[in-house]
Structure formats: structure tokens, C-alpha cells
Amino acid sequence: MSVIGKPVLYSYWRSSCSWRVRIALNLKEIPYDIKPVSLIKAGGEQHSNEFREINPMEQVPALQIDGATLVESLSILSYLEETRPQRPLLPPDVVKRAKVREICEVIASGIQPLQNLVVLIHVGEEKKNEWAQHWINRGFRAVEKLLSASAGKYCVGDEITLADCCLIPQVFNARRFHVDLRPFPIILRIDRELENHPAFRAAHPSNQPDCPPEVAK
Question: CATH fold of 8-87, please?
């Protein structure tokens, strides 16, 4: 890979982990190219020998930037924050920074992996919705409680943070699995606040180059 040039994001249109990174890149106004990786075509392009060299975990996202290849969405988000501190996505206050990371971790470790594609395939078609609903509800009860203490206009205070980058894609997943979101009014309010933000709209699955035409808005 050439050191010079735009970053390249290996992404799948509906991947919430890829979506987090797309939002952050957009918020920080970092130009980038997308290299789509289909998680379903031919058994999943992420399992190819070529992609395994990029990410041994055979998952998206991966980001090629500054001459390096980075994997795992939270690690990528941290790198972007550390190397491009302009337009910050972490608050200056250390306690608020910890609160942002709390919310990110609950979503990225406690919810999303349990309803990830590889897990749902193992659970089976008949039980996948029930399984996903259980774990999303469990996680969202925790997130709603955390937000009751931290939220202002957004997840932590009145500025957009990495927590918002993680929350909005997970709300999309919840709707996809028909989770009743009425018990989570703060989550719903923040989702409504950000649904038309340009950086979030540009990162939305329906606006990705690999989004199927019948899904794209």
C-alpha cells in the first residue's frame, strides 16, 4: 500500500462496526475511499485468503491509513482521535471521557458481538430474532441507565462523541430485529437528534456503494 493517498476503509454496508468508523471519518472530515467486502457473497468475502491477510479475524472494518492497516472499530476510532485531534470526539474532561468509553464498550462488547452475523448463523434461522432481541434489550437497558446520568443533547453532554458513533448504528440493528424501543426514550431522542446530521446520513447503510438497489433510499 502506498503511504501517500486517501485512507481506504474495508467496509460492509450494513456492518454497524464499519458504520461507526464511517461516522467518525465523516465527522473529522477525513476523505477516504471504501472498498466493499460482502459478508454474504460466495460464503463471505471476509473469509478469503486475501482479506485474511488484512484482518486475521476475518471481520470488517479494516482501515488502511498513514501506511498502516488497522482493525477493530474501537481501536480505529482511538487512532483517529489521537492522530487527528481537531474536531475532537472525546470531551476534555477526564470523567466525561471515561463515560464516553463506557457507552462505547457496552455497545461494542456487550451488545453487538452477541447479534453479529457469525453468532446468528450459529444460533440458527428460527431463533435468531429472539436471540438478538434478548441481548439488545439487555444491553439497551444498561445504556439507557448510563445515558440518564450522562446525556445532554447527545450521549455525553451537548457535543457529539464516539459514544454517539457507536449508539446510532446499534439503534438501526435494534429496529432490524424488531426490538421495541419505547422503553428507551433517551436512546430514541438521541437517535432522532442525529438521524439527519450530514455526517451520520452520509455513513448510513442506504448511502453506501455496496447497498443493494432495492434497499437504498
Answer: Glutaredoxin (3.40.30)
Torsion of CA 119, 121, 122, 124, to 10 degrees: 120
The full length of the chain comes to 217
Within a 10 A sphere around the Cβ of 197, how many other Cβ atoms? 16
Q: What is the pLDDT of residues 134-188, one digit of tens each?
A: 999 999 999 999 999 999 999 999 999 999 999 999 999 999 999 999 999 999 9
Residue 127: φ, ψ to 5°: -110, 0
Q: What is the CATH T-level fold of the domain 94-200, as seen in this structure?
A: Glutathione S-transferase Yfyf (Class Pi); Chain A, domain 2 (1.20.1050)
Across 13-116, the runs of DSSP E, i.e. the strands, are 33-36, 62-65, 68-71
Sign of CA dihedral 191, 60, 35, 81: positive
Q: Which helix (H) or strand (E) holds 8?
A: strand 8-11
- Reduced to 3 states (helix: H, G, I; strand: E, B; else coil), residue 21 is helix
Q: How far is CA 2 from CA 59, 83, 106, 109, 183, in A?
A: 23, 19, 36, 33, 49
The pTM of this model reads: 0.92
